[in-house]
Structure formats: C-alpha cells, structure tokens
Specification:
This protein is an all-alpha fold. The protein folds into two domains: about 30 residues; about 150 residues, Orthogonal Bundle (Lysozyme), CATH 1.10.530.10. About 60% of the residues lie in helices and about 0% in strands. It is globular. The chain starts with a helix and ends in a 6-residue tail after the last helix.
C-alpha cells in the first residue's frame, strides 16, 4: 500500500507536465495563422507604418476578415511595393487576395496535381518560368510579388484589366479559348470597390 501512496505524487506530477505541454501545443497551433510565415523584408514587422490611404485599406480588411493585423500590414506594404504603373495597382492585388484566399496565407486548393498555394492561390507548376521552387510561396512577399507579375503579364496579353483578372482565374489559354467567368469577375469588382482608386 505504501509503494502505491509514494507513486501517486509522481503520477500527479507527470500528468501536470503532460497537461502543460498539451496546452502549449494547442496555443502555438492556434496562433500559427498569425505569425508563422517567412518574412524576407528588412523592415521590422512591428515597426511597419501605413500612410492614410493604406490605413483605410487596413481598416477595410480587418473589419471584414479575421486575420492577423501584422499579416494585413505586410501584405499592404508588399502590394504597394509590387504594383505596376498600368495594372495591377495595389488595390487590385488586395482584392485578389480577398477573393482567392480570404486572407489565409496557408490556403491550399484541393487540386491533387499542382495545387494553388497561399494568399494569391498561385499554381507553382503552371508558372515554372517565374517560380523556381514551390517553397518560395511560403514567403508572403513572394506570394504578392508573383501575383502582381502574373496579373501584369495577363494585362499585357489581354489589353484589359478585367480580362487580366479573368485570365488569372481560368488561365490565359482558357481565356483566349473563350472561357469567361463572370461570377469571378463580379466578385473581384465587388471586392475592389471597397478600396477606391479605380483602375
């Protein structure tokens, strides 16, 4: 009987350690969406400053989506960094992020072959001329950079911002073959209208 009484405190202690580890594991898993991504920018994320227009974008996004404020600030920064003089503008990129992934940087499509990845749902195999490795799309900056480049290429090919958006969704080959997804375009228009500064 004595040996069982001696063993009870040890058992309680082990259960306490196990419970603590489980709580820590749950905490980190639940917070991965906030900050477990690769940032290559030299600016400290906590020091990211937004101008008045960017702040309005920030408020629009955080009111609609449940997403880390840090991620939103980073994406806004990169959208302005990689916008083009013609198309896309930063607001176009932000709208694409909203309709493609609902601001989830870890989003992955259900395609078994070459699934679309990240905030901007890019298929790395389809864009091998731009993307050396799918692991690049672990970086939010690369997700935004490549989306801007793809949209710009589509714009130069289609000569139209809205057609460039359609081609982003269905692929340029399918667009040139006559495939036109009006539902996707309407979603883009609706999302884009929230940010102002028309194309």
């Amino acid at each position: 009987m004595t040996k069982y009484l001696v063993a009870i405190p040890s058992l309680v202690f082990m259960l306490m350690i196990y419970s603590t580890n489980m709580l820590e594991s749950t905490f980190f898993k639940s917070n991965m969406h906030d900050d477990q991504y690769v940032s290559t920018d030299t600016v400290q994320r906590e020091e990211r400053m937004l101008d008045s227009r960017q702040q309005r974008h920030f408020e629009t996004i955080t009111e609609k989506y449940r997403v880390s404020e840090t991620i939103v600030k980073d994406v806004i920064h990169y959208a302005y960094k990689y916008e083009k003089k013609s198309f896309p503008k930063a607001e176009d990129i932000l709208a694409v992020v909203g309709i493609e992934s609902s601001w989830n940087p870890f989003a992955k499509s259900k395609l078994k072959t070459d699934p679309a990845l990240g905030l901007t749902q890019i298929r790395p195999g389809q864009w091998k001329q731009l993307i050396e490795s799918p692991t690049e799309l672990l970086e939010i900056e690369k997700q935004i950079k490549y989306a801007a480049e793809i949209l710009h290429v589509n714009f130069k090919l289609t000569k139209s911002a809205e057609d460039a958006i359609i081609a982003y969704n269905v692929g340029y080959g399918s667009w040139s073959g006559g495939l036109y997804n009006t539902r996707y375009l309407n979603k883009f228009r609706n999302e884009r209208s929230k940010f102002g500064r028309s194309v």
